[in-house]
């Protein structure tokens, strides 16, 4: 396994140990305590949690993979496209933009915290975790024609176990600067707060011939994609903070409007980001050269913004699609294959 996993001694404790687990090979299934030693990037308290909750670790590994996939989808239309997470499994650490206390780091920590609790809550519902079951039935009386039932997502259990694992690196004494720890703990809690707000009423109809005379309802979480988009909005309006004495201890306060404390629902960051236009290893930027852009868009994926004024190159791509589909009684569909040429654009 030494050839499979990164060398752990080079990991900085604050480099998203949850995300390190996304590199765990699919062939590894955590069902024995010695398997905990094979998982990359974990601090001692996380390893202890692994040994005492083996079943939970498979869910956490799944969550780590979801963070990577969701982040890249959410930022696919922007210069920074979550490339910081997409690193070779044998790399010694993540790119500097996640180490410098940037707004990108703020988003990734918040998404990581929300995702791990979301995945655990859903695993309780699906029966993948034997240590938990469905969430509680709400105390409020439902409207006429509605009744509580089904299996609610167990958000309470997800939040407890998720925060215990996700926040462990930031609570160690030798885990980076105090300012960084405060920032990451704050943003992780923002992620969990967005998750709490994503617990909504979901219903299923019952009745003769689909009349929906009565609805069975439960509390369920929105899809992770929607939660990530809410966090992206907070990323775009994140507040820059400084670490300064407030009373008897140092706290994070807004840099330009320090007359107010940091709000509980806003993402915060300590360092300004690169513009991510050009490759810069020190800044953690991979640049936008060869990124696909949209020539007709006015948004962040437009060729003007994505390519930072450098221009773009067109190319054509042949797409093969199903077309002229016909339904045959009974019961199959036949289609033809059609080809069309589309024009694409990539940044110079």
Automatic annotation (TrEMBL):
<keyword id="KW-1015">Disulfide bond</keyword>
<comment type="similarity">
    <text>Belongs to the Wnt family.</text>
</comment>
<keyword id="KW-0272">Extracellular matrix</keyword>
<dbReference type="InterPro" id="IPR018161">
    <property type="entry name" value="Wnt_CS"/>
</dbReference>
<keyword id="KW-0449">Lipoprotein</keyword>
<keyword id="KW-0325">Glycoprotein</keyword>
<protein>
    <recommendedName>
        <fullName>Protein Wnt</fullName>
    </recommendedName>
</protein>
<dbReference type="GO" id="GO:0005125">
    <property type="term" value="F:cytokine activity"/>
</dbReference>
<dbReference type="InterPro" id="IPR043158">
    <property type="entry name" value="Wnt_C"/>
</dbReference>
<keyword id="KW-0732">Signal</keyword>
<dbReference type="InterPro" id="IPR005817">
    <property type="entry name" value="Wnt"/>
</dbReference>
<dbReference type="Pfam" id="PF00110">
    <property type="entry name" value="wnt"/>
</dbReference>
<dbReference type="GO" id="GO:0060070">
    <property type="term" value="P:canonical Wnt signaling pathway"/>
</dbReference>
<dbReference type="GO" id="GO:0045165">
    <property type="term" value="P:cell fate commitment"/>
</dbReference>
<keyword id="KW-0964">Secreted</keyword>
<keyword id="KW-0217">Developmental protein</keyword>
<dbReference type="GO" id="GO:0005615">
    <property type="term" value="C:extracellular space"/>
</dbReference>
<dbReference type="GO" id="GO:0030182">
    <property type="term" value="P:neuron differentiation"/>
</dbReference>
<comment type="function">
    <text>Ligand for members of the frizzled family of seven transmembrane receptors.</text>
</comment>
<dbReference type="GO" id="GO:0048513">
    <property type="term" value="P:animal organ development"/>
</dbReference>
<keyword id="KW-0879">Wnt signaling pathway</keyword>
<feature type="signal peptide">
    <location>
        <begin position="1"/>
        <end position="22"/>
    </location>
</feature>
<dbReference type="GO" id="GO:0005109">
    <property type="term" value="F:frizzled binding"/>
</dbReference>
């Amino acid at each position: 396994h030494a050839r499979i996993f990164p060398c752990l001694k080079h990991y900085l404790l604050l480099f998203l140990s949850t995300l390190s687990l996304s590199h765990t090979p699919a062939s590894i299934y955590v069902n024995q305590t010695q398997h905990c030693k094979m998982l990359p990037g974990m601090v001692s308290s996380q390893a202890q949690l692994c040994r005492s909750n083996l079943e939970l670790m498979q869910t956490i590994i799944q969550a780590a993979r979801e963070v990577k996939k969701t982040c890249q989808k959410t930022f696919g239309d922007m210069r920074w496209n979550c490339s910081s997470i997409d690193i070779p499994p044998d790399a010694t650490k993540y790119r500097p933009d996640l180490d410098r206390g940037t707004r990108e780091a703020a988003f990734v920590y918040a998404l990581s915290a929300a995702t791990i609790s979301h995945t655990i809550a859903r695993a309780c519902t699906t029966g993948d975790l034997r240590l938990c079951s469905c969430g509680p039935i709400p105390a409020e009386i439902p409207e006429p024609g509605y009744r509580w039932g089904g299996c609610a997502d167990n958000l309470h259990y997800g939040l407890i176990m998720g925060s215990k694992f996700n926040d462990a690196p930031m609570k160690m004494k030798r885990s980076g600067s105090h300012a960084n720890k405060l920032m990451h703990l704050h943003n992780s809690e923002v992620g969990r707060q967005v998750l709490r707000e994503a617990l909504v009423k979901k219903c299923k109809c019952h009745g003769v011939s689909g009349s929906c005379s009565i609805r069975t309802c439960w509390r369920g979480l929105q899809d992770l994609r929607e939660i990530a988009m809410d966090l992206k909005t907070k990323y775009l309006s994140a507040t820059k903070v400084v670490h300064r004495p407030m009373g008897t201890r140092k706290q994070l306060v807004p840099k330009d409007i320090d007359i107010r404390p940091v709000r509980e629902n806003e993402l915060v960051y300590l360092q300004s980001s690169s513009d991510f236009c050009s490759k810069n290893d020190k800044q953690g930027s991979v640049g936008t050269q060869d990124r696909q852009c949209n020539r007709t868009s006015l948004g962040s994926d437009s060729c003007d913004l994505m390519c930072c004024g450098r221009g773009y190159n067109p190319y054509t791509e042949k797409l093969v699609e199903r077309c002229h589909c016909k339904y045959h009684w009974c019961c199959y569909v036949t289609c033809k294959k059609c080809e069309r040429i589309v024009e694409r654009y990539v940044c110079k």
